[in-house]
Specification:
heterodimer, A: alpha/beta, Rossmann fold, 5 domains, seven-stranded mixed sheet, six-stranded parallel sheet, 39% helix, 17% strand, B: alpha/beta, Pyruvate-ferredoxin Oxidoreductase, domain 3, six-stranded mixed sheet, two-stranded antiparallel ribbon, 8 strands, 54% helix
Chain lengths: 709, 502
């Protein structure tokens, strides 16, 4: 059910020794896992690592051949706990999620696995969604690595480096009995490139071996007294082991010039942006042959003191290019220099902006400032032509054409018209776009599945109830317990609306417990309403979102009923984006095959539209847009439905429910009409056009009489 | 240092196929001796946002064992080709600094996809396209701009194929047209329509920039010399509008009613041109206010079917049915009753309750079925009731009071008052709300002395009334003007007390 089919990509997973792999970064990681001989992979979907999960889900055959267990975990915590398999056994395992949000969820299990340590290589692949276009808070995964002592890899963003990082990551993990985090920035996940493949590896030690011959070691369990010993192990054994491995294997790289008065230290993931910045400043060629020495930290934690001091040695100043806040690495380097009594000037956030994503433009400005301060460039400048910005409209994310979630928010608007504004506690998922225009609904969002928990303080008798929203993804992730169970236990009187899209819509159509479709390898069709009733909610209503009248009535009832206790509305409607991907090609195929098909789409009468755009404010559909008013007397543009309309019917429902205007019309186009269709249409056309001619004659006569024609 | 790469950036909106276009360019380049790398942030674009795709091409013969380091984002001053799928996105790219006059060939469609912030305004929130056109032509080394959406419609293809054609036609990449076309063919998907779109894009890009043809409708004519002489007494600038107005009112009611329009207009012959023009415009529109009779008439006309067929792209002779959404309220019913009865019933809770089951639900009528057509036509034929109806009486009183207010004022103030009926929009609750705002401004005008700044105040109030849906901006403006009693009451259904209120 995923929004993309990966059949083509799956074939790339079979490439053998010496063959060239071409594809996206995250797919290269997937291939690297198979080359490294993993036994199990788990994770929770979310940009930018969804494709890793989707490809593996589509690669059942290969996974069976290689004896790998892959599962879509219930949450990031579930995935992280999966790494427990590597504690007692020499099994390589990898888990993945979107960071930092997923790492937040996983941190309990991560802290435990990092404390006891691992025998088999354990790799945590975090897809960073930081900077422009990010949908989450601006934070760093670095803090998690340091607090639990997991090594953090941040490889250069080319496929070869990324693939090597996966393989050495497992080795590092095994050499130091420590889980390793591999941090991939969003653009690196989506970068298209190539690398030379190796054969896939079937591990010698199998999951079955562990299950049949279990092995127990209490010193690996976080329980006194072992947990106190873990701290000792971490610092006295695992740390030095990691330092040795990283230095011996030269995981950090010395690139650019051999030596120089000044140099640059950079996080591996920012290397490409740095080189482009240097090139534009005339300090490098296109291949990274830079005029300055560069120390590339492909491992950003732990920092290897000796390597740093060696690089600093004899340099006047060094610039650290470290993205994000706090500047953990800069703080650490400062300490290293201070303790060693090294005189080299360390520059960092004082030269480069301390806020936001480090694009080449940002780095270029910083490097220029740094180089200039050290006597470079003379009078030359590197400003590109800048123009006064023109005014262009912002394009906030919004609901797709025909999205079934839109009617939910229209219903909230209608209810607010009647009983006043509501406190709405939002969740994570597509429905969060309600916060933005045109709906402007939602007060806070506290995390995935935490929609109802976010309103739990408002548990008092009041003249208005609060409304919380949760997606099906968030519901199964933890909302059932953190929200619904909590509300039942604490006897709230408030209302929760759960969006049931038939599968997880926002992350790309992955299946869930409540997916409507049958699934060969997973158990689906467990109704959300049943689960809600199961934990003790008695007031549960299921509504089809597109039925705006029912949606509105149910919501108003929930907000105003005399019933005391938690109230849950399950609003159902399949994600239109995925539905169209499935149905549109089928529809076209049927039309071509000569089957009778009907396609609905909407139409607005320009003559009766008064250009008030209330329909747009209440629907927000991308296909409902504006066009020039055809009436020369009017200046304001009229509403207009463009050809992307999928005929969901919401705008018509809005016109009905909000008593908007008589301008909306659903047009049903018939393809390959039957004989009966043709007969009916011909008969109706005959009579109606005869009547129309009569009416038209009368109108003309009127105009003639007035002397206008 | 020498630079051998070609940097391409694509600025696109969700659903416009920026990813498909990127893939085509990569496949084209890889098949013809280039190494390619690209990146984008998928996902967000899909959900209506704007996204940038970055592609870099590098000739394989230059690689020789060393891998070029490719940037993951377009960098300012370093983009050779920028492809924008929509006009404002081209403007945004200029703002980001990734279009520079020494380097960048900018290929953009001239059409608009309106953003939600533009669409949701109660008036006209569209951004100015001309300033963007000017800015991008200044910023780009070379500019290729034409309405690609029109070509998409013409070829039943998608905008990515037209853009791909325009890229080929621009000559900015070292590949022949045939090689581009091979790429589309090799993809194996919708090859025919994609090639059609490609061909149009290619030809338009080669032909150079063509100004879109202004499709100005000729103003209608008048055969009667008597009417013409009345029209000619009006200022020249107002005449075409008055002619439109005449046509509309005869179409709406009859010749006598249109004469009333001209009579009302003739009071203003001495006024400045601009005032007459605005009065002519809004008087015609107001006198032809939308009621169920008018709506039913428009929905049953033969030319409506033709308009729909064009817009929904029905194929020749394709059978289709319209399902028209109506939700008449009790008010729409009393509106067309004779004035006395209508007024009495409108104010009576008993009648309202008796009739409420009839008006509680929306209805769908199919004007292309015989029954549907006859139902609507029957309502349309009630035109004879109109001039005696309750609604007519109310609107007529408002119109007369508004005209009086215009004629009482001079110069700019008169002009601003004349423009105010633009506020009255919509049906049902929307209409009531907009009427409330209009009447508050009229009440303000009635109370105010023109100390020279009245015009500015009215214009401000009018803009505020259109600024948001909730009426907050208008209330704030009234409060700023210390207009007692006007700032707080945005009663949803009440017309504010003024000379024209019913």
């Amino acid at each position: 059910m995923a929004e993309r089919s990966f059949k083509k990509e799956v074939e790339k997973l079979r490439l053998g020794e010496g063959e060239e792999f071409r594809g996206e970064g995250i797919l290269a990681v997937t291939k690297a896992l198979l080359q490294a001989g993993v036994s199990y992979v788990g994770g929770y979907q979310g940009s930018p690592i969804s494709h890793l999960m989707d490809v593996l889900a589509d690669a059942e055959d290969i996974m069976n051949e290689l004896n790998i267990h892959f599962e879509t975990s219930a949450s990031e915590a579930t995935a992280a706990a999966m790494l427990a398999a590597s504690v007692n056994y020499p099994l390589r395992g990898a888990v993945t999620w979107k960071s930092t949000v997923g790492t937040n969820v996983a941190s309990d299990a991560l802290a435990n696995v990092a404390s006891g340590g691992v025998t088999g290589g354990a790799l945590v692949i975090v897809g960073e969604d930081y900077g422009e276009g990010s949908s989450i808070m601006q934070e760093r995964s670095h803090a998690f690595a340091t607090k639990s002592q997991m090594w953090l890899l941040d490889p250069r963003p080319n496929l070869t480096s990324i693939v090597n990082a996966v393989e050495t990551g497992f080795e590092l993990s095994e050499a130091s009995n420590t889980p390793v985090m591999l941090e991939l920035r969003i653009r690196a996940c989506h970068v298209y490139g190539r690398f030379t493949a190796k054969d896939n590896k079937i591990p010698d030690f199998k999951l079955q071996d562990a299950m049949e011959n279990p092995n127990r070691d209490t010193s690996r369990i976080v329980l006194p007294p072992a947990n106190y010993l873990h701290e000792h192990e971490k610092l006295k054994e695992r740390w030095p082991a990691a330092i040795n491995f990283i230095s011996e294997r030269k995981l950090n790289e010395h690139l650019g010039a051999e030596s120089g008065e000044i140099g640059i230290i950079v996080q591996g993931g920012l290397y490409n942006s740095l080189i482009r910045a240097l090139e534009l400043l005339g300090l490098s060629d296109e291949f990274g042959e830079a005029d300055l020495p560069i120390y590339v930290m492909n491992v950003t934690y732990p920092v290897i003191d000796e390597e740093i001091l060696e690089f600093m040695n004899g340099k006047k100043a060094v610039l650290l290019v470290e993205e994000g806040h706090p500047n953990y690495i800069e703080q650490e380097l400062g300490l290293i220099l201070r303790k060693a009594g090294c005189e080299t000037v360390l520059n960092g956030k004082d030269m480069i902006s301390d806020i936001g994503e480090y694009t080449s433009d940002v780095i270029k400005k910083g490097v220029e400032k740094f180089a200039r301060a050290n006597g470079y460039f003379g009078n030359s400048t590197f400003e590109t032509a800048r123009f006064t910005p023109v005014e262009v409209p912002a394009r906030p994310a919004g609901f797709c054409t025909g999205c079934p979630e839109r009617p939910m928010f229209t219903a909230i608007q209608l209810v607010q018209e009647e009983i006043g504004d509501l406190h709405v506690s939002a969740d994570i998922g597509c429905h969060l776009f309600s916060i933005l225009p045109p709906f402007n609904i939602g007060n806070t969002t506290m995390g995935y599945g935490l929609g109802w928990a976010g309103a739990s303080a408002f548990n008092k008798d009041a003249r208005k109830r609060t409304l919380s929203i949760m997606g099906d993804g968030g519901f199964w992730h933890n909302g059932l317990t953190s929200g619904v169970g909590n509300a039942v236990f604490n006897q709230t009187d408030n209302v929760l609306m759960i969006v049931d899209n038939n599968y997880s819509a926002a992350t790309g159509g992955q299946d869930l417990l409540s997916s409507k479709a049958e699934h060969e390898k997973r158990s689906t069709q467990h109704a959300i309403a049943d689960a809600v009733r199961g934990v003790g909610v008695t007031w549960v209503k299921e509504v089809r979102t597109y039925d705006l009248v029912d949606m509105h009535r149910t919501l108003l009832d929930a907000m105003t009923t005399s019933f005391k206790g938690p109230k849950v509305i399950v609003a159902q409607g399949e994600c239109m984006l995925n539905r169209q991907r499935r149905e549109k090609p089928q529809f076209n195929k049927n039309v071509r095959a000569g089957k009778r098909m009907v396609r609905d789409r909407f139409y607005v009468d320009s003559e009766t539209c008064t250009g008030d755009h209330q329909c747009i404010r209440m629907s927000g559909c991308p296909s409902l847009t504006l066009k020039e008013n055809p009436n020369p007397l009017k200046s304001d543009p009229v509403a207009y439905v463009d050809n992307s309309c999928v005929g969901c019917g919401h705008c018509g429902e809005v016109a009905h429910a909000a008593v908007l205007c008589p301008s909306f019309s659903k047009v049903s186009l018939i393809y390959n009409p039957s004989v009966w269709d043709k007969f009916k249409a011909g008969f109706r056309r005959g009579i109606i056009s005869w009547l129309q001619k009569g009416a038209e004659r009368k109108r003309l006569r009127r105009l003639q009489k007035a002397g206008l024609v | 240092m020498s630079r051998n790469r070609i940097s391409i950036a694509i600025a696109a909106l969700g659903g416009q196929g920026g990813g498909v276009l990127s893939n085509w360019i990569v496949e084209l380049a890889e098949a013809n001796g280039f190494m390619a790398q690209y990146t984008a942030i998928a996902g967000v674009a899909q959900r209506t946002g704007a996204t940038i795709y970055a592609i870099e091409l590098y000739p394989e013969e230059q690689v020789q064992g060393k891998e070029p380091v490719l940037a993951l984002m377009p960098v300012s001053g370093d983009v050779d080709i920028l492809i924008a799928s929509e006009l404002m996105e081209a403007g945004r790219a200029v703002n980001r600094g990734i279009v520079t006059p020494d380097k960048t060939t900018l290929i953009t469609s001239d059409h608009r996809v309106f953003a939600i912030g533009e669409k949701e305004q109660p008036g006209d929130g569209r951004f100015d396209a001309d300033t963007v056109r000017e800015a991008i032509s200044e910023a780009a080394k070379e500019l290729i701009i034409f309405d690609m959406d029109a070509l998409v419609q013409q070829s039943s293809s998608v905008i990515s194929s037209v853009l791909f054609g325009a890229l080929a036609g621009s000559g900015a990449l070292p590949f022949s047209r045939e090689l581009f076309e091979e790429t589309i063919k090799a993809s194996g998907r919708a090859v025919e329509s994609n090639l059609a779109g490609f061909a149009l894009g290619f030809e338009w890009a080669q032909a150079g920039n063509v100004d879109p043809i202004e499709n100005q409708e000729p103003s209608p004519e008048i055969s009667s010399s008597e009417l013409m002489s009345s029209i000619e007494k009006l200022p020249k600038g107002a005449q075409p509008i008055a002619i439109y107005g005449l046509h509309r009112l005869v179409d709406y009611q009859d010749a006598d009613y249109a004469t009333l329009y001209l009579d009302r207009l003739s009071q203003f012959t001495g006024a400045p041109d601009a005032v007459v023009k605005e009065v002519a415009r809004h008087l015609a529109l107001w006198m032809s206010y939308e009621d169920v009779i008018r709506v039913a008439d428009l929905k049953t006309r033969a030319d409506r079917g033709e308009k729909i067929e064009v817009e929904v792209k029905a194929t020749d002779g394709q059978i289709w049915y319209g399902h028209d959404y109506f939700h008449p309220r009790f008010e729409e019913f009393t509106d067309i009753l004779p004035a006395g009865i209508g007024a009495a019933m409108n104010q009576s809770q008993i009648w309202r309750r008796i009739f409420s089951p009839l008006f509680s639900k929306g209805r769908i009528i199919r004007p292309k079925t015989i029954l549907g057509y006859l139902m609507l036509r029957m309502v349309a034929n009630l035109r004879f009731l109109r001039q005696g109806s309750y609604k007519f009486k109310c609107e007529d009183k408002r119109i007369r009071s508004w005209l009086e207010l215009v004629s009482k004022h001079k110069g700019d103030a008169a002009l601003e008052i004349a423009k105010c009926p633009r506020l009255i929009k919509g049906y049902g609750g929307t209409h009531a709300r907009s009427l409330n705002r209009f009447s508050r401004i009229m009440a303000f005008v009635e109370k105010s002395q023109d100390d020279g700044d009245l015009a500015v105040k009215i214009a401000e109030l009018r803009d505020a009334a259109l600024a948001d849906d909730k009426g907050n901006a208008l209330s704030a403006s009234f409060n700023n003007l210390n207009a007692t009693g006007l700032g707080t009451d945005d009663g949803k259904n009440s017309e504010f007390e003024w000379a024209g209120s019913s």
